[in-house]
Amino acid sequence: MRRHLFPEFVGDAALGLAFANFIYITYPDLDPGQLWLLRASNINTERLARVAVRHGLFHFVRHNAPSLDVKVNEFSLAIKK
């Protein structure tokens, strides 16, 4: 059993719910299909990574993979160019 993935599962669900609530309130005239497309285009790995780097949020991510720091640093430098 891979219980270490459970926090990621819950975090993804919480983020999806929070963003769905935000766009539902912000754009009340959009139909469900349009809301789904808006959510899907904003909740993806690359977009979230860019936001995390732009706002320095990646410093607060807990992990147990030293190589991840190197990859995040490389990504951060690449998107700042």
UniProtKB/TrEMBL annotation:
<keyword id="KW-0378">Hydrolase</keyword>
<dbReference type="InterPro" id="IPR000999">
    <property type="entry name" value="RNase_III_dom"/>
</dbReference>
<dbReference type="GO" id="GO:0005634">
    <property type="term" value="C:nucleus"/>
</dbReference>
<dbReference type="InterPro" id="IPR036389">
    <property type="entry name" value="RNase_III_sf"/>
</dbReference>
<feature type="transmembrane region" description="Helical">
    <location>
        <begin position="9"/>
        <end position="27"/>
    </location>
</feature>
<dbReference type="GO" id="GO:0005737">
    <property type="term" value="C:cytoplasm"/>
</dbReference>
<protein>
    <recommendedName>
        <fullName>RNase III domain-containing protein</fullName>
    </recommendedName>
</protein>
<dbReference type="GO" id="GO:0003723">
    <property type="term" value="F:RNA binding"/>
</dbReference>
<keyword id="KW-0812">Transmembrane</keyword>
<keyword id="KW-0472">Membrane</keyword>
<feature type="domain" description="RNase III">
    <location>
        <begin position="1"/>
        <end position="81"/>
    </location>
</feature>
<dbReference type="Pfam" id="PF00636">
    <property type="entry name" value="Ribonuclease_3"/>
</dbReference>
<dbReference type="GO" id="GO:0030422">
    <property type="term" value="P:siRNA processing"/>
</dbReference>
<dbReference type="GO" id="GO:0004525">
    <property type="term" value="F:ribonuclease III activity"/>
</dbReference>
<keyword id="KW-1133">Transmembrane helix</keyword>
